[in-house]
Amino acid sequence: HPTYVVIGHPIAHSKSPQIHAAFAAQFADHPAVSRFVYQQLLAPLDGFSATVKAFADAGGRGANVTVPFKEEAFRWVGEQLTERAAAAGAVNTLVRQVNGAWQGDNTDGAGLVADLLRHIDLRGQRILLLGAGGAARGALLPLLQQQPKSLSVANRTQSKAQRLLDEVAAPWLHAQDVSLPLQALGFDDLLDEVVVADGSQFDVVINATSASLNGERLPIGDAIFSSKALAYDMMYSKGETPFLAQARLAGVHTRVDGLGMLVGQAAEAFELWTGLRPNVAPVLQWMREQI
Ligand code: ATR
């Protein structure tokens, strides 16, 4: 029986088993990984909770949750949520507690930040997050914790960006007694002339929209990028993603895709389960060679 699984539908394409096997191999003789067996688990679309329950009854210790169950997993765990999972409104990691209950966490945002920090210090930077769906929501708190200079969220539907800031970012900053400029934008606001006029360029621009999935270009102008900007796409692909191609044409030197975020979120989950911090770099390099 596996002690750890990734649950999704579909699941055959998931790279998580490879990643976790590589992490476990880094601690081959450690007692914390002696019973670490990680596999894929396909849940029927209407059978998420039954699938987790059967896994738990068979001795399951932890699970990753992927598309399309992250929001359902969030509801399923009820009160047992970490702050970042509560803010994300989604759970990607389930951790079995000593009393048998499941805690829901979300390591996606931490995986993103860990990958960004491999390239740039986020403190004091002007961050622009593109998109206001689930992926953007999960990134908000982990980004704010890095104490950027400002955080702007731009979305095709501007009201959704505003709602994300009002519901997640502003209350968290208030609770921390921290003040930092938050800005909700529509893509219209990112056209060259408007941005140049008020000088609001960004040092870190993160694509959290799903536009790349359809190979679509985002309606943003070249002038949003500061001279030393970093462009980050949460998506990854064998070749360059449409957003990173756009950034390259805009003259952005540092362009990073989301493969490191994928490995990073897995590393955070692995550490939650085993208490061991895996070395991400060699696994990321190995994954890069695979795609
Ligand atoms: P995810 O979980 O990947 O974030 P989601 O919650 O459905 O998926 O959110 C998708 C995000 O991508 C949204 O911000 C969406 O913009 P809207 O809120 O206006 O729908 C954005 N998006 C999707 N397709 C897009 C496109 N072709 N151009 C621009 N934004 C797009």
TrEMBL record:
UniProt entry keywords in alphabetical sequence: Amino-acid biosynthesis, Aromatic amino acid biosynthesis, NADP, Oxidoreductase
Record: active site: K70 (proton acceptor)
InterPro entries membership: Aminoacid_DH-like_N_sf (IPR046346), NAD(P)-bd_dom_sf (IPR036291), SDH_C (IPR041121), Shikimate_DH (IPR011342), Shikimate_DH-bd_N (IPR013708), Shikimate_DH_fam (IPR022893), Shikm_DH/Glu-tRNA_Rdtase (IPR006151)
Record carries keyword NADP: yes
Residues the entry annotates as binding shikimate: S14, K15, S16, T66, N92, D108, Y236, Q265
GO cellular component, one term: cytosol
Domain SDH C-terminal, residue spans: 258-285
Reactions performed catalytically: shikimate + NADP(+) = 3-dehydroshikimate + NADPH + H(+)
Its EC number(s): 1.1.1.25
Any GO molecular function: shikimate 3-dehydrogenase (NADP+) activity
Extent of the signal sequence: none
Segments forming domain Shikimate dehydrogenase substrate binding N-terminal: 6-94
Positions that bind NADP(+): E83, G131, A132, G133, G134, A135, N155, R156, T157, Q158, S159, K160, M234, G258
Residue ranges occupied by any Quinate/shikimate 5-dehydrogenase/glutamyl-tRNA reductase domain in the UniProt entry: 121-171
Pathway note: Metabolic intermediate biosynthesis; chorismate biosynthesis; chorismate from D-erythrose 4-phosphate and phosphoenolpyruvate: step 4/7
Record-linked Pfam families: SDH_C, Shikimate_DH, Shikimate_dh_N
GO biological process: amino acid biosynthetic process; aromatic amino acid family biosynthetic process; chorismate biosynthetic process; shikimate metabolic process
HAMAP family hit by this protein: Shikimate_DH_AroE
Subunit structure: Homodimer.
Function: Involved in the biosynthesis of the chorismate, which leads to the biosynthesis of aromatic amino acids. Catalyzes the reversible NADPH linked reduction of 3-dehydroshikimate (DHSA) to yield shikimate (SA).
Protein family according to the UniProt entry: Belongs to the shikimate dehydrogenase family.
Protein name, UniProt field: Shikimate dehydrogenase (NADP(+))
Organism: Deefgea piscis
